[in-house]
Amino acid sequence: MSLLAEKTPARTYAAHAKPWWQRTLMTRDAAIIALLVVVWTYASIVILNFSDPITVYFLVLDVTPILLIALPMTLIIITGEIDLSVASVVGLSSVLFGVLHREGVPMVAAMVLALLACAVAGAFNGVLVTRFGLPSLAVTIGTMALFRGIAVGALGTTAITDWPDAWGDLVQARIGDSQIPLMTVPLVALIVIFAVVLHFTPFGRGIFAAGLSKDAARFSGVNVDRTKLILFTLSGLVSGLAGIYFTLRYGSARGDNATGLELQVVAAVLLGGVSIFGGRGAIPGVIAGVVLIGTIGSALRLDGLSANIIQIITGVLLIAAVIAASVLGWTGRIVGTYRRQHSSDEPSSKQSPQRKRSE
Amino acid sequence: MPDTPAALELRDVAKSFGPVRALRSGSLRVEAGSIHALVGENGAGKSTLVKIVAGLYRRDAGDYLLAGEQVDFRNTADAKQAGVAVIYQEPTLFPDLSVTENIFMGRQPTNRWGRIDRAAMRTEVVELFARLGVPIEPDRPTEGLSIADQQLIEIAKALSLDAKVLIMDEPTAALSGNEVDRLMTVARTLRDQGCAVVFISHRFDEVFALCDTITVMRDGAYISTDPISEVTEDEIVQRLVGREVSDLYPKLEATVGKPMLEVKGLTSTGLFHDISLTVREGEIVGLAGLVGAGRSEVAQAIFGVDSYDSGEVTLDGRPIPPGDPRRAIEMGLAFVPEDRRQHGLVLDAPISRNITLPTSGRLARNGLISTGIENRSAADWAARLEVKAATLDALAGTLSGGNQQKVVLAKWLSTQPKVLIIDEPTRGIDVGTKSEVHRLLSTLAQEGLAILMISSELPEVLGMADRVIVLSEGHQTAELSREEATPEAVMRAATAHHSTTLNVSEAS
Amino acid sequence: GGSGSGDEGEGGGDTSSITFIPKNLGNPYFDASDKGGKNAAKEIGTKWAQVGPTESTPDSQVSFINTATQQRAGALVVSANDPTAIGDALEEARNAGTKVVTMDSDTEPQFRDVFVSQADAAGIAKSQVDLIAEQIGGKGEVAVLSAAANATNQNEWIKLMEEELAANHPDIKLVQTVYGDDDDQKSFDKTAGLLQSHPNLKGIISPTTVGIAAAARYLSDSQYKGKVALTGLGTPNQMREYIKDGTVKSFALWDPEQLGYLSAYAADALASGDIEGKEGDKFEAGDLGEYTVGADGVVVLGEPTVFDESNIDDFDF
Amino acid sequence: MTTTLDAPAPAAPQPRHRAANRLTWLLKQRETGIAVAFVALLVVTTAVNPNFLFSTDGWRDLTLTPAILVCLAIGQAMVIVTRNVDLSVGSTLGLTAYLAGRLFLDTGLPVIVVVLIAVAAGAVLGLINGVLVAFAKVPALVITLGTLYIYRGIMLEWAGSDRINASDIPPGLLDFGTGSFLFIPNLAWISFALLAAAIYLMRSTRVGREFYAIGSDPAAATLYGLRDKRRVLQAFATSGALAGLAGILYVSRYGTISSGVGQGIELEAVGAAVVGGVAIFGGSGTVLGAALGAYLLTTINRALPVLGIPDFWQQAVVGALIIGAIVLDRYFARRQHDKLLAEREES
Ligand SMILES: Nc1ncnc2c1ncn2[C@@H]1O[C@H](COP(=O)(O)OP(=O)(O)OP(=O)(O)O)[C@@H](O)[C@H]1O
Ligand SMILES: Nc1ncnc2c1ncn2[C@@H]1O[C@H](COP(=O)(O)OP(=O)(O)OP(=O)(O)O)[C@@H](O)[C@H]1O
Ligand SMILES: [Mg+2]
Ligand SMILES: [Mg+2]
């Protein structure tokens, strides 16, 4: 028997236990996509004006910031962390962009500088979480107030509103004569990039491993801290991008832009099937989650219902989604596939999801 | 049963965790006023049995009687209520709370108004500690206590319950000789007062000195019960293992080459001091010592998952940068950790992803990796190690312990290492797989791999290693050649206090 | 909430529906103006709906403007949370054939057809400065408790007040402007902060209904009651008890119900093509009579009413 | 223990904290640090503007303004100690405040009955969180994020564009809300009483100690046979009830209930607890610390304008404070850890 030198295939293995269609269709992602299709179809038939192509136009413009931020947020939550400061970074980006523009810095340079600052803000979160070993929940609650405070403080009472029309028009432009916003193109590109990074690169494999078991990942050579630092920086950068978008779309740089957006993003990501424990989730589901919330909001508004119902539905969907996961998991455990760490039979602290003092 | 009911009786109790049958048919009958030894190899199901008695697990089948009454506990509080006290194998304390609170949690003495009587608690703890001769400050938090101190608190906790049945799951593993003697005194006193005591230990000297009856378990099943006076140590070992011990260690001759792993003066405050060792091509070096001696910490520091304060590590002559496991892997170091479930495997990830995790960078094409690529590599290595699994996307956590260990080995061998550090290679593995692993290690050494093997099982160390290095309390107390390494020599070095470092020749 | 729009007309529009989008829901000022709008719609015989965000931010308002666009509403009556931020959305609505009236708080003129102004800004600013000057004897420190820092109308009034003070009341010093965001608690706490930071404060002007009510409530049971004057824009129902107990001597406001009423008529006149919003266009506004569109498409409701002990019981809104 | 062993007689417990010991102990407490920061803030601000403390209103607002947040921070601290978090308290506060307003407006029930109903309603809302967290085994962060939306949505939907004005509230309650007893505002007395009760609960009863145990190591809590589900339910119900009470306090203090009541206050409550030294992953920290954190955060908000810092910067200061507090905590924990290791080294 020679293990390191030559091959001695003694056994063969099937790659998968279930056929491909079961693996694709019997997932949280598929369920949420199906729900989206059902809601969309229902709304198109029942709700007046919903089938109008302009619905798509407004919907895309509306969900763009949430969708943008949801991408890095998905990766962060999969590593088992969270970033609540994203909406404040949006405000920060908007204000910096505005102030630089007011001071006469050319548009593109102002944009790049604002984005850099936001990446630094994100890295600040990342350093506190990885180098200092602080819980990201507490850290980002703190930086949420800090970044927002800086944004609001820097601009004070004013909103900067003298933006060149060309830029605002670019953000809201349509592709040709269609009702599809031009924004869709970079958005789809970003989605593809994030999906590839998460699902088809060694870095992405490290993200999942870090979320499922920080220790096992570290013991396998995954640099968990560096991974998280990169993701927090990325989150700052993309949130900054959303801030630029906000500024240009509304032609107004304000410190209070996107207030409360962080919870919407987290809700959408979790609805999209990402586990708050980390280690589980996929980009298609998240996209569907974001669009689903946007669609329901759009449909209800068209139906003349108030914003309040939208809140209730968002909350119910969120809770239903996670409870469904836990109920499914509970049944799954009977067949022996459930994550060990939720199982009541095993109180071993070694597997508790939020293991503290892990140094 | 004709005579008076036993204090504790289990009949054909079974327990499975998913596909893992931890306990097939566990039986145990303990009389009041006796000390009963429960022995079995690692993974024989002893702790599982204990946890069923404690009310922590619910049995899948079988009978559980206390003083002749059928019982069925929903949780550990019920069991405590019924007079069952348990000292678990791993100490389970609340790190943020004080020693006193840990001892009384859930049953603190209260006054009429529900106010906790702290003074009474403290008085009782002081009294308990005095009886046990424990010098622990009752008001300090338990965080940062040594394993031995934590174990002593567990013992105090169990004693403070007025228990009819006391179960101790390897309580002495981390204790010094003095502490063991004191514990034995306490156990005997309790016995004389009519308590039924169950004592689990891998140390036969203790078992024979303390107990009056002995039950042997193997592979989750009951084997035998005898009065201790009617059996010999050899007979027990034979029953434990189920075959001749000498079969177990198929050591192959290997040619020892140049030094591959060299460690010089490795020190980490509070954990280990001035560790220096060399492992050569084709050589298996054993790292022996008692639990808590700091061997795992040394290994983790070498690999880079832990930091260290001073010292240096080189692999094939090139220094391994501290704190960078990825670099260590690239340089040819592989590390099979002691705790498979926490460190070795991502239990909730498929087998294939587990095997390819350290090599995913190498496997990627144009920076991209796919399940297909992973499966091809994983299938190859799983086959070489004969992992018993149906599909590659089965979660690693669903495999039995032995197969999990094979997956870990597959994962590390797929990195094509030059040096393999393997911590407790056969912990919790059944006897069959155990010898497979041993054969594998021998083969690997023969192929020129340098292996550093940490093991708490003396026969394994003595059977497998070309050289044995012994650690005690974080200090290197002996380096013994294969010939010098007798059980007595290793044990003496392992229990030596570091100020009295052993002279190797004297020890042999 | 209100009801959705009815059947879709040809050429993509239901010219006979008016949608009101206030700054935020749950604000009594806009409740009153909505009431006026609803009455007008009933008189005209068109459909009427009121939708809006719960927080007064421009981005949440945009979604509702977009929805109205999708519904091809005949006309929109909006009170803007930001002069430019909702501009593109309004443009989009106008491109789809919806007429846009701003009310109470304007956008930049190019984004709407007509702005129905509660009173002309200079008049509002002057009346409040005059009221406070009278109450504090023409001398001393005053402060402003405003709504959101970006509210168009607030900022314009504050600017005009400063000019008015400089021009005609040199002894009155405006020491600070704070923002209560039309949030009750915030306005309340900001009042407390103002009084502490400025021990010599003589008066507070709060040109927002939420702010003045919160400030009055703080003053009414503080040591400053009767010592620090308060005036601004408030609704009689909210302020009645503070007038009665002497916390506030007088304050001003136009009738928001009339404002909504007039806006609905202006919207209908636009939607039915009677006017285009050019200077000089004339339209009938039910009980209020005929109005003329002024420069920049502004229609002015009239002068604000000053409320004090003598007349407050004559009003109920 | 009824058994007696032939072992050495128990050593008499030594007198523990003598005066000097007590002082060093006090200095080491996290609460002392926050209290010192609080006092320093008072001194500096009052030096700049004596009115900040030495005026009837200054003195009153000092204890009155934080009362509501103190209430929430106490509940939040209890929940966080069990290794959970309750983000729904702001919405619970809003919903119960509106409920109380409606009851005053529509029923004419006596004030005390309305208060009890509001507190009970808060407890029920908290219990819903607790049930979902304990039985569905879903992290509290997700559940309470969901109920944050749901409770707020229900309130908004119910309230429509109605709002409740001071004139709808019984004058007795409003007078109570702004009144004082022995120079201390009534609401402050309530918050002190709650704080005292909470300190007693957390320090000296089994329930409180088990909260700590569950948060410190949930797995060990199972091994000890603690009724962890019940405790989690209790913690959430208490937090909800306190939020309900905070709703009433809000009504009596501010008189008007608009749609945004309590929006965003949940993060202030978490912030207060974190600043006050409650570890976000449970097991340590005190309600006193959380209450002091609430005092510090609220008072900073009032002090900044006095100190001449535009109030736009308030949030930034609060954020910096939260970050500073957790970094400092970690630093001390590290030092303690190293010290313990060194001690072991010597022994
Ligand atoms: N929670 C669990 N999930 C899955 N398998 C488990 C679990 N607990 C124990 N096992 C498996 O059950 C078997 C028996 O374990 P147990 O801990 O009872 O052995 P033991 O006799 O106490 O061994 P040791 O001497 O090492 O303590 C082992 O194979 C172990 O891997
Ligand atoms: N996470 C930790 N924090 C603090 N001390 C620790 C930690 N892990 C281990 N220790 C301590 O380090 C020392 C050595 O640890 P460890 O038990 O790994 O040694 P070992 O020789 O590998 O024993 P084992 O036979 O269990 O593998 C022990 O005293 C233990 O208490
Ligand atoms: Mg065991
Ligand atoms: Mg070890």
From TrEMBL, chain A:
The lineage of its organism: Bacteria, Bacillati, Actinomycetota, Actinomycetes, Propionibacteriales. It comes from Nocardioides panzhihuensis. Keywords: Cell inner membrane, Cell membrane, Membrane, Transmembrane, Transmembrane helix, Transport. The keyword Cell membrane applies. It is found in: Cell membrane. The chain crosses the membrane at residues 30-50, 56-77, 107-130, 137-160, 180-208, 229-248, 260-278, 285-302, 308-330. Residues 340-359 are annotated as: Disordered. It is a multi-pass membrane protein. This is Autoinducer 2 import system permease protein LsrD. GO terms for cellular component: plasma membrane. One of its GO terms (molecular function) is transmembrane transporter activity.
TrEMBL record, chain B:
Pfam families: ABC_tran. Keywords: ATP-binding, Cell membrane, Membrane, Nucleotide-binding, Repeat, Sugar transport, Translocase, Transport. GO terms for molecular function: ATP binding; ATP hydrolysis activity. Residues 8-244, 243-498 form the ABC transporter domain. InterPro entries: AAA+_ATPase, ABC_carbohydrate_import_ATPase, ABC_transporter-like_ATP-bd, ABC_transporter-like_CS, P-loop_NTPase. The keyword Repeat applies. It is a peripheral membrane protein. It comes from the Bacteria. Transmembrane segments: none annotated. It is found in: Cell membrane. PROSITE patterns: ABC_TRANSPORTER_1 (PS00211), ABC_TRANSPORTER_2 (PS50893). One of its GO terms (cellular component) is plasma membrane. This is Rhamnose transport system ATP-binding protein. The lineage of its organism: Bacteria, Bacillati, Actinomycetota, Actinomycetes, Propionibacteriales.
From TrEMBL, chain D:
One of its GO terms (molecular function) is transmembrane transporter activity. It is found in: Cell membrane. The chain crosses the membrane at residues 32-52, 64-82, 103-125, 131-151, 172-202, 232-251, 272-297, 312-332. The keyword Coiled coil does not apply. One of its GO terms (cellular component) is plasma membrane. It holds the Pfam family BPD_transp_2. CDD domains: TM_PBP1_transp_AraH_like. It is a multi-pass membrane protein. The complex is composed of two ATP-binding proteins (LsrA), two transmembrane proteins (LsrC and LsrD) and a solute-binding protein (LsrB). Part of the ABC transporter complex LsrABCD involved in autoinducer 2 (AI-2) import. Probably responsible for the translocation of the substrate across the membrane. This is Autoinducer 2 import system permease protein LsrC.
